[in-house]
Write a structure and sequence with these properties.
4-stranded mixed sheet, 4-stranded antiparallel sheet, globular, magnesium
Length: 412
């Protein structure tokens, strides 16, 4: 077994390859936070004047997610939540603003608390603040605590590893980087080993029960759980951290966890060789021979951005449909007999007949087809594709006339 890589080497490796940001970029993020906080005062004053209030309501802006943990990567978004009295920010259908500030993408969520003013040292772990909040505001109350540098480096390493191995993104059926003080190397070894051997669907819980909003706990009932990968959050409001995971994405993740665990336990002459192997970019074309290409095309930027968000949820559902498909014509006939038997790009094409811009995104789904010998080698997934297209069409509204979705088979 190779000697564990020390924390300094991990830090130097991540920094030298621009995986983590330097002091200049870190200062830019601090300036963005300072700017957002400075805007709260005139915002509150204008509201108070408009409503003829005697006192100006106090709002707060707090970072959350990987940035608040210090585990973000270079060029990552900043996630912040604006806490305001319910009289200031009323409930909206989608309480989030996406914007770019000094070239840094920033997502601002809003939560309306039933408080006259929001104190600067508010304790968000106090469940009393959650009384009377609707599900939309509860979803925005995802504020984390600060942790040590070892945790931050491990989190950055895991995020970069998941991105390189094409497994980063909870809506697409994988995970966001939220690892569970040891050294960076030891923490990563424990992380990969645990997830590689976890006996799913046994739930992951760090508490004895599920906490409710009154501070009491209720027992976990596995019969009510349908998640493929049930990872249960430890505080109210309880949610499942991997709700979109499918059997296929779980299989891919388990294989990659085992690979990473094996690499960290193997011998390498140089630490850099081990890390290069761990973070080598995954080639999605190589393991598969058959593919489905889901193409989303829109004529307007707004439509494109809207449907990219919707497709992040729709694609895992499509994969679930494919997982439930019979494997061959033989199995199809057996089922009928009642017998028992698994990239965005922008294209400009201004011409006289078709002026304008077409915004396109491709989603590639690798198909692992296993058909026993002596059986018909035709895989019929027409009904699953039709159901998927029908599901997308049901999500359309009058503003989506420029959007089309198509599914195309591919072969390497």
């Amino acid at each position: 077994m190779h000697a564990p890589i020390d924390d300094t080497t991990w830090k130097q490796y991540l920094s030298s390859r621009l995986i983590t940001e330097g002091p200049t970029e870190a200062k830019k993020r601090e300036n963005v936070m300072s700017l957002l906080k400075s805007l709260l005062i005139p915002f509150s004053e204008q509201y108070a004047n408009k409503q003829r209030l005697r006192a100006v309501p106090v709002c707060q802006i707090l970072p959350f997610g990987s940035y608040s943990l210090g585990g973000h990567l270079a060029n990552a978004d900043i996630d912040v939540v604006c806490l305001a009295p319910s009289t200031v920010v009323e409930r909206t259908a989608v309480p989030i603003i996406k914007c770019s500030i000094d070239s840094i993408m920033t997502d601002i969520s809003f939560v309306s608390l039933k408080q006259p003013s929001i104190p600067p040292n508010i304790k968000l772990l106090d469940d009393g603040y959650l009384e009377g909040l609707d599900s939309v505001c509860l979803a925005s109350m995802d504020v984390d605590l600060q942790h040590k540098q070892v945790f931050q480096q491990a989190m950055q390493a895991i995020k970069h590893w998941a991105t390189q191995r094409c497994m980063y993104g909870k809506p697409m059926g994988y995970l966001n980087a939220s690892p569970e003080s040891l050294t960076t190397h030891g923490l990563l070894q424990a992380f990969f080993c645990m997830w590689a051997e976890w006996p799913w669907p046994v739930p992951v819980m760090v508490t004895d029960g599920i906490p409710d909003k009154r501070g009491q706990t209720i027992p976990y009932n596995p019969s009510q759980e349908t998640a493929v990968m049930p990872i249960i959050t430890p505080c109210y409001p309880v949610s499942f951290s991997a709700p979109f995971t499918t059997l296929s994405t779980l299989k891919v993740m388990t294989k990659e966890f085992k690979r990473a665990s094996l690499i960290l336990d193997s011998y390498f002459d140089q630490s850099e060789s081990m890390l290069d192997k761990l973070f080598s970019e995954f080639d999605i074309i190589r393991p598969y021979k058959h593919f489905l290409k889901v193409v989303v095309s829109c004529e307007t930027q707004k439509s494109h951005e809207t449907w990219i968000r919707k497709m992040a949820v729709a694609i895992p559902r499509f994969v679930t449909m494919l997982e439930q498909n019979y494997k061959s014509i033989y199995e199809k006939n057996a089922l009928r007999a009642g017998e028992d038997s698994d990239v965005a790009r922008e294209q400009s094409f201004a011409t006289a007949l078709s002026p304008g811009v077409l915004l396109m995104t491709w989603y590639i789904i690798g198909l692992e087809v296993k058909i026993p010998k002596n059986e018909d080698r035709v895989l019929d997934i027409c009904s699953e594709v039709d159901d998927f297209i029908r599901t997308i069409d049901e999500k359309r509204n009058s503003k989506d006339i420029d959007m089309t979705v198509s599914v195309v088979s591919m072969k390497r």
